[in-house]
Amino acid sequence: MLNQRSSGILLHPTSLPGNYGIGTLGKEAFHFIDFLSKADQHLWQILPLGPTGFADSPYQSFSSAAGNPLLIDPELLVKNGLLESQDLRVAETPEEAPVDYGTLIPMKLSLLKKAYEQFIKKNNPDQQKGFRNFTNHNGSWLNDYALFMALKEHFQWEPWYTWDEPLKMRDPSALNDYRALLSEAIEFQKFIQYLFFLQWFAVQDYAHLKKIRIIGDIPLYVAYDSVDVWVNPRFFRLDESLTPVAVGGVPPDYFSETGQLWGNPLYDWDAILDDGCTWWIDRIRNNLKLYDIIRIDHFRGFAAYWSVPYGDETAVNGEWIACPGKEFFQCLENSLGDLPLIAEDLGVITADVEELRDSNGFPGMKILQFAFDSAEANDHLPYNFTKNTVVYTGTHDNDTILGWVQSASPEDREFLLDYLNSAESSVCWDLIRLAWASVANTAIVPMQDLLELGTEARMNLPGTTDNNWRWRASSGSFGDELAEKLAHITRLYGRMTTRKHPGKQEKQQT
Question: Across the strands, what pairs with 458?
Answer without folding.
Answer: none
